[in-house]
Amino acid sequence: MKTNTLDFDAQALRERILDLAMRGKLVPQDPNDEPASVLLEKIKAEKEELVKEKKIKKREANLPKFDNLSYLPTGWVMTKLKEITTPLSLNDGDWILSKNMSDKPEVKLIQLGSIGYGKYVNKGFKYITNDTFDELNCTQIKPGYLLINRLINKNKLMTTILPDIDGKLITAVDICWIAPSKEFNQEFMMYQLMSPKFQRRVNKLASGSTRKRISKGNLINIPIYLPPLSEQSRIAAKIAQLFALLRKVESSTQQYAELQTLLKSKVLDLAMRGKLVKQDPNDEPASVLLEKIKAEKAELVKEKKIKKSKPLSPITDEEKPFDIPDSWEWVRLGAIFDITSSKRVMKSEWRNEGVPFYRAREIVSIKNHRALKDPIFISEETYKEKAEVSGRPKIDDILLTGVGTLGVPYVVSDNKEFYFKDGNIIWLRNIGKINSYYISNYVQSPYMTKIINNGRGTTVATLTIVRARNLLVPLPPLMEQTRIVNKINKLYKLI
Question: Most CB atoms closer than 10 Å: which of 24, 28, 59, 253?
Fold first, then answer.
């Protein structure tokens, strides 16, 4: 069913903001700003003084070759991290082994997982003693340091500014740190490292078979943009403002989605209790509908079109979870559908083209109107062979996921050829006397969702045919089923 959601790609918007910022298009340039070229000369002079004082060594590095900028905003220069920092202000964390760890919370070791994409994620700490700190000649880092996780996570270089954390802090060797500097804005530098262009360059230089990482040498030689210092501050402030707005929108969107879910659940709950639409005394009661279904199933068994099912146990008053209108009936799902599955298809029979073959995950995607990821097919010959034995789903039949996300319903709406995996999906053959969309809504109701997933906090691996046949269904008259479905659709459009 169509829902009214505030769908937007927040991450794509963040990347767009960062891209504009690093091209000088997020805030206007100010001709009164001291050009970055002057800033670079100051940094160069300071570094030469440090070399002279033998506090740092003079080092050279080759610049990786990337496409040159065709345009730089007024006052900007292109440089690299190596040129605006020293080993005293940019370095790797310390080499800490398992044997160095301690239970004494004297020195906190920042974990790799705490370095998020522009945010600090508190994953807790590991610890070393003060004595180990001294023996290993560790470097203490402080709040305000820019931390860079050199291990690539989902093609992203994670970086954040260390928040106020009490105590003595160090980082592991795969975390590179940059101390705050009067020569550049720390927040601006973080945003630049997060920007799409910088991230692409990182991925070009990252290496590793199982987990990619970028070396410190490559990291500090990646080209970066350096605007005037004042402009850096304006850019950082603007990005922070826009990101804060995005977070509010994300929060509102999440809250709206949660409200949608709550309202839909309430609609379904009322519907399945007979409280969403009025009962019509002129409707043929559900008891008569049940007799028709029973007669139809008996005829199909006689014609050998379906197999005779085992008798279902009577429904006791204790089993009935709530009251329903007098014209309704409590029934077991197996009494109103022929519940079966498909003929087994072996993995060796899967193909890259042909007749679509659905597992539970494909049914979930189809139900949610999402594109299928790595779709599977079987040959036309295999499809005909299997369908000859088991039959094939028809319009108004229901497919119900039996593994993974349990009980996701899909109502067959057309005659397009497809087949499905046995054990993954339960097939509810509609004999033509039930509104399939009523049942589809029912299995998504709060009560039924709880029952299908066991409702006791226990993980249920599968929804079997036997379990499905015995599920309780509050069955309205057929005309009322249709009115309920129409009312649900109408309300969902308003939610």
Answer: 24
Inform me whether the pLDDT recorded for 59 exceeds 70.
Answer: no
The secondary element (H helix, E strand) that includes residue 492 is helix 478-494
Q: Check: CB of residue 195 under 8 Å from CB of residue 236.
A: no
For the record, the structure tokens of 474 come out as 């509050």
Tell me the DSSP string of 259-298: HHHHHHHHHHHHHHTT-SS---TTSPPHHHHHHHHHHHHH
State how beta strands 107-110 and 168-171 pair. parallel
Tell me the DSSP string of 365-421. Answer: HHHTT-PPSS-EEE-HHHHHHHHHHH----TT-EEEE-SSSTT-EEE--S----EE-
Q: How confident is the model at residue 54 (pLDDT cuts 50, 70, 90)?
A: confident
- Residue-wise pLDDT tens digits, 79-115: 999 999 988 899 999 999 999 999 999 999 999 999 9
Beta strands in 93-166 (DSSP E): 107-110, 125-128, 146-153, 156-161
Closest alpha carbon to 443 in 406, 483, 404, 392: 406
pLDDT grade for 455, boundaries at 50, 70 and 90: very low
Closest CA to 365 of 376, 354, 355: 376
Residue 167 in tokens = 């105590």
| Single pTM value for the model | 0.66
Greatest pairwise CA separation for the chain in angstroms: 101
- In angstroms, the Cα distances linking 202 to 217, 229, 341 are 12, 24, 50
Domain extents in the chain: 274-494
What mean pLDDT is predicted for residues 243-260? 88
- Cβ pair 297, 487 in contact under 8 A: no
Give the per-residue pLDDT at 50: 82
Mean pLDDT of all residues in the chain? 90
Q: How far apart are CA 299 and CA 380, in angstroms?
A: 31
Quick one: pLDDT at residue 461?
A: 65
Is residue 131 within 8 A of residue 94, CB to CB? The reply is no
Of the two residues 2 and 401, the one the predictor is more confident about is: 401
CATH topology for 274-494 is Adenine-n6-DNA-methyltransferase TaqI; Chain A, domain 2 (3.90.220)
Write out 191-221 in H/E/C secondary structure: HHHHCHHHHHHHHHHCECCCCCECCHHHHCC
